[in-house]
Write a structure and sequence with these properties.
Largest sheet: 5 strands, antiparallel
Structural class: alpha+beta
Number of helices: 21
Strand order of the largest sheet: 7-6-10-9-8
Distance between the termini: 85 Å
Radius of gyration: 49 Å
Strand content: 5-15%
Helix content: 55-70%
Shape: elongated
Length: 754
């Protein structure tokens, strides 16, 4: 097996070695070969070009003359710039016909100008590019049928270019091979494009391939024999040869366009765009400026081959990249931007030129007016450049991406959306809905650990058997690589070698995942993993905040319970004992005696102590609050403030509230009213208690000195406000303080009824 594989590999390498040898031999022959006479003739011997100050011009040769012989050598043997039999300095006899007369002249041969052989060496450089690039592709992917067919096609192009260059110096066998290779090039090109970039149904019909190669073989034989024909048959054969070659080029481009229109894969479309660009750039100018004019008139347009031949190197480069590399994102974006700027430049140039010609024709102006007109048109061009570029870029994007998506744009857009994601629902929206819609996928699913459970969201048809196990185990899944099957793709969301979630996406119907799909999902998976971790961290933080708030509520409730217990114990224990003591002292005072005065003092002190303890019990647990409700307790508190010299107005609604809410609001109102009496220097205060839908609102306003509220309670010694704010938060509400120096203060607390 190994010997057989080595033999096959060597057989495949043989054409490249032969073509390389041919290219270098042609280069050597052109550099150190025959001399030139400074004229060029077509296959009929008719002179089509005479260089200025050349031996041919000095010998009297003119365009239109028909060459008959050079030292008795027929013109079919030396229709190029050089002759293989003579060196520079050799004097030869040239016979030619002009009209009805035949002339004979003696001219010396000279070395070819540098620009001539450099231009011909460009042909060999392009041939070398065809040869080497196809060889690299074959060595990189020898098992691929597309790589082998590409290798055969490029080697034939390289050999054809080398033979064409060699035929210009009069090597007869090179001219024969040039014709034969051109005959076989068309079926080879059509065959290759029938299987690449997408397999066409033509490739499944063997009879069509056989017919194509048989036709090419027949034409190759006829092209091989063409030098022995007459001048007229030579022209006909040359026309057929170039028409046949043009047919191959048009068919190749047509197959690529058909593949681009019919394929539904964005990856395949990117690859087709690249090679279509290379084909049009490489063969378009050659077909229009060289092959078509030769087929129609027998000669190319001016020296077009000096431009068209170098451009042909774009074809093997584009094909090699498409075959060798699957990640064409950068190339595709470069083509996109390049085409947009090319169209913009062409449009602006045309508009600028037409505008100038129009105004110059209708409005003849002097030099100053001409400069002003040019500046005005240039200014208008500059102003319209940006909007025109944006509009054309949109059109090019629509042409490139059609109903599909721009990978880089999708990555940027989704990455930014994920960076802002802090909610589980937002993460689900991006990964389960936005990305599948942009990528034209049937659906997606997300497994994410939430609230201590692994929750599934998305399309139920996306099934990943190991998703829950991966998250539960928390172990990395092949370093977080995207796993693709025929039905779906699985993207483990891995952060620091720990699986935080699993993202599954359903595959498109009857379509395989492409390497660019893997690249985009890998990039999005990294963003999604960080977003999933952020969502989990935020959820954990919020749970911790809720836990702390609940602990704070419990602490306040426990404190209120302790206050109530203490007030009850004081009222039922110590106060009752003191009242009993007063009764006994009152009895002793009625009996009289030496210590009546002392007993009276003790009786009075006991009364004061009872009053203080009753006030303390009221502070710990207002009796009116328990018996009459919040509004009555607030009125009692306001009466105490009035006794201290503060005029208080009440706007209180009778509202039934839970004990927890009533006690909290009472404490806040008491603290606020105490601050008014102690700090505000106010003469009037208003206490408001009202219901606002499902909320209860308590407000205390005064006309005092006011102050500048601190950004955070507790600063500048505002611990009373801090306590009120904490009580409001414990009730699930919030505290608002509105105040300005000299404008009074308004303290408002809003919380739920329950």
């Amino acid at each position: 097996m190994r010997l057989g594989a080595r033999f096959v590999k060597r057989v495949w390498l043989l054409p490249a070695l032969i073509v390389l040898g041919l290219i270098f031999w042609t280069a050597a022959h052109m550099l150190w070969g025959a001399a030139t006479y400074g004229n060029l003739s077509d296959l009929t011997g008719r002179v089509i070009e005479v260089d200025a100050n050349s031996p041919a011009e000095h010998g009297g040769l003119q365009v239109g003359d028909v060459l008959l012989s050079l030292n008795d050598t027929p013109p079919l043997m030396w229709n190029g710039y050089r002759h293989p039999l003579y060196r520079a300095g050799a004097v030869t006899t040239l016979t030619f016909q002009r009209g009805d007369r035949v002339y004979t002249t003696t001219i010396p041969a000279e070395l070819a100008p540098v620009n001539r052989w450099l231009a011909q060496l460009m042909i060999l450089l392009v041939a070398l590019a065809f040869c080497l690039l196809s060889l690299v592709v074959l060595l990189g992917r020898p098992e691929a049928v597309e790589a082998r067919q590409f290798y055969v096609m490029c080697q034939m192009w390289a050999a054809s270019l080398a033979m064409g260059a060699l035929s210009t110096v009069g090597v007869q066998v090179a001219s024969n091979w040039f014709g034969a290779l051109n005959g076989l090039l068309t079926p080879t090109m059509i065959h290759f494009h029938a299987i690449f970039p997408e397999r066409h149904r033509l490739a499944r019909r063997r009879w069509s391939a056989v017919a194509l190669y048989v036709t090419g073989g027949v034409l190759a034989v006829s092209f091989w024999l063409r030098p022995s024909f007459s001048f007229q048959s030579i022209e006909t054969t040359q026309t057929i040869m170039y028409v046949w070659l043009l047919l191959g080029l048009v068919a190749a481009i047509g197959l690529m366009v058909a593949a681009y229109v019919t394929t539904s894969s964005p990856y395949a479309r990117r690859r087709i765009r690249l090679i279509l660009f290379g084909t049009v750039l490489g063969f378009g100018p050659f077909g229009l400026l060289t092959a078509a004019p030769i087929a129609l008139s027998g000669r190319a347009a001016w020296d077009s081959w000096m431009i068209t031949i170098p451009l042909m190197s774009a074809l093997p480069i584009a094909y090699a990249v498409a075959l060798w590399r699957y990640n064409l994102m950068g190339f595709d974006r470069a083509l996109n931007r390049g085409l947009a700027y090319l169209v913009v430049s062409a449009f602006l140039f045309g508009a600028y030129f037409v505008a100038l010609m129009f105004f110059y024709t209708l409005l003849p102006v002097d030099r100053v007016g001409s400069a002003a007109l040019g500046a005005t048109v240039a200014l208008l061009t500059a102003v319209t450049f940006r909007p025109l570029r944006d509009w054309i870029q949109q059109m090019v994007d629509r042409l490139f991406y059609g109903g599909w998506y721009d990978y880089r744009g999708l990555t940027d857009e989704v990455g930014q959306a994920l960076a802002r994601t802090l909610e589980p629902d937002a993460l689900v929206e991006v990964l389960v809905h936005q990305v599948p819609q942009a990528m034209h996928l049937p659906g997606a699913a997300l497994w994410l650990q939430r609230e201590g459970e692994i929750k599934f969201t998305g399309k139920s048809g996306v099934k990943v058997a190991r998703a829950r196990a991966w998250i539960q185990e928390g172990e990395p899944v092949e370093s977080g690589k995207v796993q693709m099957t025929q039905d779906h793709a699985v993207v483990p969301l891995v952060v620091k070698e720990h699986v935080v979630g699993v993202w599954g996406l359903a595959a498109r119907a009857s379509e395989e995942w492409g390497p660019e799909d893997e690249s985009i999902l890998t990039a999005l998976g990294r963003h999604a993993a960080l977003a999933a971790q952020n969502v989990q961290l935020v959820a954990a933080l919020r749970a911790k905040v809720v836990e702390v708030e609940e602990m704070h509520r419990r602490l306040l409730a426990a404190r209120e319970d302790e206050r109530a217990d203490l007030a009850r114990e004081l009222h039922d224990g110590v106060i009752q004992d003191l009242i009993g003591l007063r009764y006994r002292l009152d009895a002793l005072q009625d009996e009289g005696g030496d210590q009546v005065e002392q007993v009276g003092d003790i009786y009075a002190q006991a009364g004061l102590l009872v009053d203080e303890l009753r006030q303390l019990c009221g502070n710990l647990r207002p009796l009116a609050l328990d018996q009459l409700g919040l509004a009555a307790a607030l009125r009692a508190m306001m009466r105490e403030a009035t006794e201290r010299g503060l005029r208080v107005e009440a706007q209180l609604q009778e509202i039934s509230l839970p004990d927890r809410v009533a006690i909290g609001l009472y404490r806040i109102g008491r603290e606020a009213l105490f601050n008014v009496w102690r700090h505000a220097g106010a003469s009037r205060a208003v206490v408001t208690l009202a219901r606002d839908r499902d909320d209860i609102v308590l407000a205390v306003a005064d006309d005092g000195c006011g102050f500048v509220p601190a950004s955070s309670w507790g600063k500048n010694g505002c611990f009373g406000l801090l306590g009120m704010a904490e009580r409001a938060e414990a009730l699930g509400g919030h505290l608002v303080v509105e105040s300005e120096p000299g404008e009074g203060t308004r303290v408002t607390v809003r919380c739920g009824l329950y």
